[in-house]
Each structure stands twice: as structure tokens, then as C-alpha cells.
Structures
1.
Amino acid sequence: MEARPQSAGTSSRRVPVAVLGATGYAGVELLRLLARHPAVEIVCLSSEQYRERRASEVYPFLAGIVDLPLAAPDAWRQSAAEIVFSALPHGASASHVRDVVADGRRALDISADFRLRDPAVYARWYGPHAAPELLAEAVYGLPEIYRDALRAARLVAVPGCFPTGALLGLVPLARARLMREPVVVDAKSGTTGAGRSLKVDQLFAEVNENCRPYAIGGHRHQPEIDQELRRAGAGASCLFVPHLLPVSRGIISTMYVPMEGSASRLEQLFVGAYADEPFIVLRGAEPPELREVRGTNRCAIGWHWDGATERAVVVTAIDNLGKGAAGQAVQCLNVLLGLPETTGLEAPALVP
């Protein structure tokens, strides 16, 4: 397993950063985390919907914490920002990220625009790509898997929320070449995973006291999961079905994996992969719950071996805005800066 980077030293300099798309759910979660990060200073924010208003006007809980005005997406050019976070929508982010990298700054993109390495696959799910020349360079921002490559990255593609939960549960099995088809990923998400725009099917009366599967015929996170499983050595693809839960945040994923193994082998794989990882909580036979990760950058993992059917059942729980988006982006930032990865991410779960 790759070693985590050591502290960047005793320098008190704060790195200037910009956040594009700062008023969406992932963007405002970034503001919440970056505002208390000891090594960065937020110097530029963008929001098309709330341009020229202050962040604390849109979100009063930021009053006295983040009072910067919201500007156009290209306002980073006139700022001192050395690192730019893009929480812009899929399709809208790529051209801005391309300009950031061309200007000699580093970018962490929370959209899907640089996660898929094949432009044809991207086009199928999202439309034509605005900067396909950067796809091969983008580093997939899952530190537990790509830590070494992240350290020198100019462009980080922060993973999707569903892929994060699935991959952290499946990659140890894929690396061991034990998985067989059909691998089933049954994932259930809170409503913030759909973004902050108004949708009828996201209204309270539609979501409350309900659980709804969707995108059964194919979800755009499926090729992202399959791509990274192949890179980890899996010969099997997965069947991915998402569901919507009547909660604000969190993803719980249950994976059913035909494989050659045993209960002790499963434990060896997860302990070997994650024993020293600061944000992985190994629960063993005790399945995780959403509430233990809400508001954190943690991924809790439990597992069970069904000897009668030779299947592993793996369960992961993450906060879709934390380890599934903004928290993971800040973890990647810490890797870029050579800081302990827990910097700015030490808070425990929000319970109850």
C-alpha cells in the first residue's frame, strides 16, 4: 500500500484558492470545509445564479465566515488563486478547467468532466467533451488508490459519489483477481446527490416516506465504476442500480460479489488495503449505517461471506457531499500540498 505524504513543514503560508459553482450543494460544502482549513485562504467565488451577491447572503450560516462576493466563473483569472476547485455542472466545467490548467494553476474538478478517460464514452453519457486533450492527464481523485499520482497532478478528477462508495468496497477484491460476474451494486442515496436545481421528483411530498429506484436501464456512473474496476484488475463488470432515499445526504451501497474466497480471506483483503487509511473505518461483520458518516469524509465498510453461495456481501457508507464530493476534494488538496490528509477534515459525524 502506498504511504501517505508527510506534513508540508512548519510554514504558516495559506494557499489562495477559488471555488467555482460555490452555491450548489457540493460548492457550499466546500466552503464549509475550506473556511476552517488552516492552510488555505478562499480568495474567489463564482455563482451564475447569485452573481454579485455575497455567499453569506445566499447561505446565512456562512455570515462572518465566508462573506466574499459571488462573481462570474472566469473571475479566478483576476485573483491570486493558485488552486481552483470547480463545482460547476457536468459539461460546463471542462472549458473553465482547461483554462485554469493552461494558466499554470492547478484544478480539482468535482464534475464528471474528467473522470472518464475515453471521450467517446463521455460523449455517450454527457455529450461532446470541451477539452478531450486533458482526459489522459487527469488523475482520478481517490487517494486510497491513486495517492502517488495525485501528488504532482495539475488536474484532479474528483470521483462521483456512487463510484466512490462502490470502488472502495470492490477494489480490494478486484486487485486480488477474485471477482466473478454478475457483480451487483445496489446503492441508495440522499436527495442532495441530484443537485440543488428544482425538480418535481425531488419535492418533499415525492420523496418523503418513499424509496425509489431509478436509471435501471443505465446510469452515467456505471462506466466510471467499470473503468476503475478494470484499472484495478477486475475481469468482471458490475450491474449498478441506484435508489433515492428520503434523507438529505449519504449513500449506502450493498455489493453482491461472486468470488473465490472465505471469511478470513475477505478480512485479509480489507485490512491489507485499508488498515492505515485515515478515512476508512473497517466494521467487519457489523454493517455500517448512514448516520455514522454524515458530515464526514469517512467511508465505513462492512462485509459478510456467504459460504453456501460463494458470495461476498460488502456494504459501504459515505456522505455523498463529504467523501463523495467536497470532502474528497479537500483530501486531494491535502495530498497536492503535502499536508496530512486529515487536515481540515477531522470533525466527527453529525449525530443525531
2.
Amino acid sequence: MPRLGAHLSIAGGLPRAVDRAEASGCQALQIFTKSAGQWRARTLSPEEIGRFRARVAESGIRPVVAHNSYLINVAAAAPALREQSIAALGEEIDRAEALGLDGLVMHPGSYTTGTEDRGLTLIADALSALLRARPRGRTMILLEQTAGQGTNLGHRFEHLAAILDRMKRSRRVGVCLDTCHLLAAGYDICSEDGYRRTFEEFDRLVGLDRVKAFHLNDSKKPCGSRVDRHEHIGKGCLGLEPFRMLLNDPRFADLPMLLETPKLESKESLRRSDVDPWDARNLRTLRKLIARV
């Protein structure tokens, strides 16, 4: 059975995200280890790291992954932005390693004023250098397939394959597939035939063994829109059937499947309860789609 979970807030400290995951009935968890909209990160104390690792161990929630900052763009044509992005990504990797996380999800990047091919090379070169500098690292880099807005890379399976090929198919790099992004990028997973063809193509170009996590999001925008707008499960252009197929696909039976759907949470609601009502509703919807043997 897939391990259902959600991206949850670290407000109040990293261990609080595990509390929220436990209260929400999550089996897996995604977090930010720092503010996603800032370059600078507060230092994690040994005490907070220890409490977080202990809470994860006692909760049984696994895998636990982080999503990196949205500011990072290692495909940037501008040298200064790329250097800043590489340094920030290195820091994110080190934080994930310290916390014992299984993966670090990252958008591959945008080629901005450069070219698509050059952008893919810059991504592969940056990741190769960062992993080479950390030969004993255990946290996997998970390239997230994107919706394809603007000059974003990673929306085509060919992009992911090109990055992996340039990295000599490093086993320290996997893929996170997002259902909203798949549809927006033009992969119609809504029908049985479209679902089958999409994953046949992914397997041929990238390899199904590279899939280490899913983001489960419905889409506000239709197939091929290349617009990344998440919607609640069953309330958007995907509907329920693609989620039913994914949740019951034996090839993905043990993988984390994580919600990134809109939340009701606010600072006030987080004080009142660890459970976001929309997360609870979406998790219930997904669990109803799992076939009982």
C-alpha cells in the first residue's frame, strides 16, 4: 500500500511537523527545512536536530523528505545567481543529511536567457559537483518533474533523462512525479490508455526504478496548459480516476505519495489544531480509492 502523507508546516520548530503528521494520520512527510522564499536559513541546533530525528523514529513515519527553496536555480545563465544557487543547494543537502532525511526534492531549474540544452548541462554539472563533494551522503536528490511554465526545465521526460545521462546515471539521483505537473505538461493520465502510455514512455526514457516519490495534486488547469495550479483531490481537471490508478498500481505500492494541495491553515489554526481540515479531507478521499483485498 502506498505511504500517504502531506507537506506540513515546520512552524514552532522541525519536530512540530512530525507532531502534525502523526495527528493527521500521515505515513510519510514532506517539509521545508528553512523558509522556501529566503536565501538565508537559521542554524539548526544539535538539540532540535536530535528531537526531530527522535520524533521521526518513534512515530514510524517514513520516508521523510524535504523540498528545497523555490529561489534556487542551478540552471541560471547568470553566473552570480547560479553560484548563489549552488551554495544554497549545498546547504539544503547538508541540512537534509543532518536531519536524516531520505530525499531532497528540487525543481531542476530554468534556463532563463540561455538555452535548454545548456541549462540541462548546468544542472547536471552542479549536482555532480555537489554530490562529489559529499561522497558519504545518504540523502537522495529527487528531481521533480515540472509543469513547464516559462523556461522551466524538467517538464519533459527527455529533460530528466538528459540530466541523468550527463551524471552517468548516478544512483544518488531519483525522480519525484507530480500529478498536477504531469497533466499540465501534456501527459494525459486521466484515461487508462493515457496512464499506460505515460508510464511506458517514462520507463523507456528514465526508468520506473528512478521514481522515489509522488506529489498528489489535482490541477486547476487542463492538460497541456503548462500552468502549475494545484487543486484539491477530485476537484480539478484530473478528477478521481488517475489517483485511483496510481494508488492501486503495484509498481508504486511502497512509495510515499504526498499532498501539496491548498491548505486552510493559518497561524491561528495551527495554534488550535495540528490537523489542517483540507489535508484531512484529501487524505480521506485518497484512502477511499485504495482497493481492499
3.
Amino acid sequence: MSIIMTLRIALKALNRNKMRTVLTMLGMIIGVGAVITMVALGRGAQATIEEQVKSAGTNVININAGNFTQGGVRQGQGMSSSLTAEDAAALRTVPGVQYVSAGVNSRGQLIAGNQNWSSQVQGVDIDFQLIRSWPTAYGAFFTPQDVASASKVAVLGKVVSETLFGPDVDPTGQIIRIRNQPFRVIGVMAPKGQGAFGQDQDDVVFAPYTTVQKKLQGQQHINNIIVASETPDTATVSAAITEALRLRHKLVAGDPDDFTVRTQEEIASLRTETTRTMTVLLAAIAGVSLVVGGIGIMNIMLVSVTERTREIGLRMAIGARGRDVLLQFLVEAIVISLFGGLIGIGLGFALSMGIERFAQWPTSIPADWIGVAFGVAAATGVFFGFYPARKAARLDPIEALRFE
């Protein structure tokens, strides 16, 4: 019997019990749809992380101060006083280094008129704007003279500017108070959006690091240094920076670094690897429903074999071979799986688009996973449909004709 004839017989058999066929497909539809949706969410998260890292600059190197321990309590990276402004100045002579910005982190209550807002205050150098490729929407960034004299000037992020002064307002020249100290606003940064770690990059105030260091924090050290390399080969520059800082800090062989050096590529690879692991985990959990759907197909096919025992006996009596019967029931199982898989792929697309539109979560459906889902659906039909088909093919024609 030709495969076309077998397919026509299978479709007619499935059409006789439409509701049962649809309900059997449901497990496969839900399984494939869930897998496609989970993978789309995971790939969307990976793509977002990669875009955020690119926006921060792939040639950026972050140097943070080491851990500080007091009374047996570790304060964490960036809390020690191991980095100084002199370290940042020395890194300008390291081969491959293009821009350098010392950094001091703080936080404070911002007040402008009758408005107030709590935000982070980042002390940076003039190269920071060049490292991050971050232009101003209003006014200008501070100057070398502002850094040298520790001037009380501030450049606001978009969120801070809109909160204190309202949307579409240029606050240049206005006075804000940070920890009750007056700062003159000289500019507003262009909107940047969410950072690679989920933080709002626009909810920030920038000031000269010397000002934050001396007039807000009262400290001599800095918390971090941001470096931009001349080339994308940040690994070589990172190694040179590590060697230069170890020499400056008089660390001998065997001494651990009292600072950390991280490139954007390392940060990106860590985040994307974590997201990839979660994607695989979620897809595996969703894949359980595929197994459940396959068990449902096997169950229905066994019932179908029992119901059609006399039909099978009659076909064998008039010349149908065992392999013809096996192929017929196997094709029925595969048809159920494939149709369920196709509808499931459509459901996955619909769910992904709905999540992206209404929940504002980025999604991305890779073409290779569509092929994988379709292949798994076909394989499920073959695997779970083989036993019922084999059982049907092994029926004795005489006993089958006697079956009531």
C-alpha cells in the first residue's frame, strides 16, 4: 500500500473522532507552545544583555578596589582604600589605554525648590563621557578646571532632571542641594535607559570625583577606575593594567591582588551564560508536557487499536500485511504529533508576541528551535505510536474477526 493511500486512510480514521483527536493533540500543542515561549524569553533576555553591554562599550575595562574587612566582617569589593587618584593617572601611560576616569560612589538626598529625590551620586573624571559615548541633552559636562578645583557642579541624569524640574525643562544654571550642600547644575545627560545589570542609568547625578571625594565622602581614596582601551583586544590591556597596579601597590609574587579588573566581555559572558542556563532549564521543564502529550497519544492509539480490532482483522484477511497495519497506525500517531506541533509553534509565536507587547519583556524566537520543536513532535509521534502500531500489526486475523 502506498504512503499516500496510508495517509488518506489515517486522516479518515482521525476525522471519525474529531473531538478525541483534538484533545489528544492538546498535550502536544501545549508542550511545543511552552517550549517555544520559554526559549523566546531566554533568547530575548540574552539579546538585551548583549545590546546593553555594547551600549556601555565593548572596550571598557572596570577596575574596582578590593575587599575591606573590619572585625571579621567582609564589606565586599570596592570598599577598601587600595585605589587612589594617582593610580588612575598612572594608567594613562599603560600601552593600549585610551581614556581613564577615576570614580567615587556616593548616594544622597537631592533637593531643588520644593522637590526632593534620593539618587546615586557618581564622582567621575572628564573622560567618563568619552568612555561611555554619552552626550548631554542640555548644557555641557564639567571641565578639567572643575575637577582640579573640586567645584560644586553637577550633571543630572534624565530621571533626576525630570523629577526635580519637570519634563522637557532645561535646568542648566539651577541650584540643587546634595546632602545640604549647594551644587550648580551645568548639564543634563541624554537618556541612556536600563544598564546591563538592570539598573536605571538615568537615575544618577554626576559630579567631579574630587568634589565627591572631598566634600561629600571625606575620603582620600577612590572606589573604582574606568578605562577605555584603544582596541577591542581588552584582554591584553587588562593584563597590562593588572601588572601596572601590582607594581604601584608593591605586591610581590604570591600576594593576591587588592583590586579587581573586569572587562565588559567577561561581564557579558557571565550574564549570558546564566541566562542560557535558565533558558535550557525552563525549556526542559516545558518539555515535560511533551512527554505527557506523547503518553496521551499512546493511550489513545491503544484505545483505537482495541476499537478497530475487527477492522484490522478484516484488512488482514483480504491481504493486508502486518507492516501495512503497523505503518497505518504509526502514520496516524505521527499526524497527530505533527499537527499538534505546528499548532503549538503558532501558539508559541502568539504567546511570545503577547508577552512582548503587554508585559514589555523582550522575546526572540530562533529559527533553529522551531526546527527542533517540529522534529521533537515528529519523534514523539514515532516513539509513542510505535507500540500501539506494533500491537495492531501482531493481531491474529481470525481472533481479530471474532472480537466483539
